[in-house]
Amino acid sequence: MHPVPTADLLLHGGRVGAQPLTPRHDAQSPPANAVAIADSHILAVGTENDLRPFVTTRTRLLSCAGHTILPGFIDPHLHLFAWASRLCGVDLSGARSLADLHAALTQRRATLADGAWLRGYGYDEFLLAEKRHPTRQDLDAVSRQHPILVRHRTGHAAVLNSMALHHARIDQHFVPPSGSIVAHDASGEPTGVLYELEAYLRTVIPPLAQAEFMDGVRQTSNALVRLGVTSFHDASAGNTVDDVEDFQRLRTEGILKSDATVMVGIAALPQLLASRRASFNNADRVRIGSIKIMVHEGRGEIYPPPEELRDMVWRVHQSGRQVAIHAVEEGAVWAALDAIEQAQRRLPRRDHRHRIEHCALCPPPLLEKLVETGSAVVTQPGFLHFHGEKYAAEVDPDRHEWLYRTKSLLTRGIPVAGSSDCPIAPLAPLVSLQTTITRQSRGGVVLGPQERLSLAEAVPLFTTAGAWIGFAENSTGSISPGKRADLVILDGDVVTTPTEALHALKVTTTIVGGEIMWSDSWGQM
C-alpha cells in the first residue's frame, strides 16, 4: 500500500468555487468546503471529512469561515513597470480641470531641485472642464525650471513643456517616427501634445532613479497579491529578453510575489529566436509569453501598414509562437485578423491561440472573422466601469453593445479572457467581475446589456480563461487535484452576495504555489 500523502495546508469551512448549490448537494453529496495543499499543488478537494486522512500534526489549518475559495485571479494583460513608474509621479487621474492639474504638479514641483524632471500620469481630457489636452504653455505655467512630462491615462499620448521639448529635441523641424504624431499650432510650433511617441521618448528622457523605481515595483507586487492576482502577463510592447531576465530576478529575490508571463515586443523577436528560449514553459515561475505587436489607426491610416503587419505576424506564426496584437479600433482589428488569416493560409496551425488585445468595438462581421481565424480576445470589462460615461458620450448608442463584448464571443465559441490593462485602468478584479455581469459604469450608465454574463460565466474569464490563453490550463486556473495551488479567499459568499456588491468583497488570503503571499490577518496566523 502507498502511504497517504500529508497536506502542508488545509483550507476548510469555505465555499469552493462560484457555482450555485443545486438539489444534488444533499447529505449524500455535500458541496466541497475544503482544499488540501501539498508541495505547492492541490492535493485534494472535498469536504472536511473527505480530506481528514491528509491531515497530520504537520498540517497547517486555515479556517475560511464560510468565505469563498476561488482559483487565483489571472490577469493576462497589464504593464507592471509602467504601473510602478506611475506610482513615482504625480497622480493626475483625479484632475477635473487644468487648474486641478496645475495645482497637483505645482505641489510636487516644490519638492524638486531645479532641473529635475517633473512627471505626471493619468490625466483624461474628457474629464477636464476644458475638454482638451494640456499644452506646453499650460505646463510652462507650472515651471520653466523643470522639464515636465505628463502622460495620458491610455499611455498613447503625452504632453511636454518647453524645457522638456528642448531636451527631447522636438521642434517645428522634428520628423516623428512612422505611426506617431506631433501636434502643431497655427504657427507650426509643437503644442507639446504627442501621440504614439513613447518608444522615442524612452530614448531621450532619463529613467527614474533606481531606488525610486524599485519602491514602485514593490508597491505593485504587493497590490497584485493583496487583490488576489496570482499570475499575470506583462503586455508591454517594448519588452526584450533582457526584461524577461529582470522579471526573473525580481521573482527570485522575492520582490515579485505573483507568477509572471512576459510578452516580448516584435522588435526583439530575432533576439528571442537566437536565444532558443521556449515560450510558455510552465515549469518556470517567470515565463516568456506572446510576441506583442502594436496596431493602431491614425489620420485614417493603419500603422504598421497592412503588408508590414502581415510580415510581422507571419514571422511570429512560422516560428511556432503566439502573437498578441494590440488592436482597439475596428480598422486595426480588421488588419490584425487579416494578418492572422494570411499566416494561417500559408501555414495552418490548429492551436495557435493568437490573441487580439482589447478589440474595443466588435461589430458582427468582426465576430465572424474571429471565428474564421480561430483567434482569441483579451478584453477589459472594467473599462466600462471606469470609462463608461466617456463611451456613452462619444460612441453611437447603436454601437454600445459592441463595446468590450463577452457574451457574443462566448456564444460563438470565441475564447475570451478578462484583464485590467493596469495602469490604464486600476487593477480591480472584483470590479471587473461585477461589471462583466452588470455592464454598468460607476456613474450608473448601462452599456450593451445584451452582453451581460452570469456569475458562473464571468468568473472563468478571470481564472480558467486566463490560464488557457497562456497555455497553462493544465497547471493552473481551476481548483483541481494536481494543479498548482494558486488560490484566493474572499471575505464572503460570492454566490449569495448581491451582484451590485461584488466589488466590495475583500481578499483575505492569496496563495501562490501553495505559499500564503497575502493575508489580512498576518498577526493571527
Structure summarized in a few sentences:
The protein is an alpha/beta fold. It has two domains: 74-79 and 209-512, Metal-dependent hydrolases (TIM Barrel); 89-204, Diaminopimelate Epimerase, Chain A, domain 1, CATH 3.10.310.70.
Please tell me about this protein's structure.
With 525 residues, the protein is α/β, with parallel strands linked by helices. It folds into 2 domains: 74-79 and 209-512, TIM Barrel; 89-204, Roll (Diaminopimelate Epimerase, Chain A, domain 1), CATH 3.10.310. It contains 17 helices and 25 strands. An 8-stranded parallel sheet has the order 7-14-15-16-19-20-21-22. The chain has a 6-stranded mixed sheet with strand order 8-9-10-11-13-12. A hairpin with a 4-residue loop joins β10 (148-152) and β11. The radius of gyration is 24 Å and the shape is globular. The model has no long low-confidence stretch (mean pLDDT 95).
Q: Indicate the multimeric state.
A: single chain
The CATH architecture category of the largest domain equals Alpha-Beta Barrel
- Major beta sheet summary: 8 strands, parallel
The domain count comes to: 2
Instruction: Identify the overall geometry.
Output: globular
Overall SS class? alpha/beta
CATH topology of the largest domain: the name is TIM Barrel
Number of strands: 25
Determine the number of helices (DSSP H or I, runs of at least 4 residues).
17
By CATH, the superfamily of the largest domain comes out as Metal-dependent hydrolases
Beta-strand content? 15-25%
Sequence of strands across the biggest β-sheet = 7-14-15-16-19-20-21-22
- At the first level of CATH, what is the class of the largest domain? Alpha Beta
C-alpha-based Rg, rounded: 24 Å
In whole angstroms, how far apart are the ends? Answer: 35 Å
- Name the helicity range: 25-40%
Low-pLDDT runs of 5+ residues are none
Question: Mean of the pLDDT scores?
Answer: 95
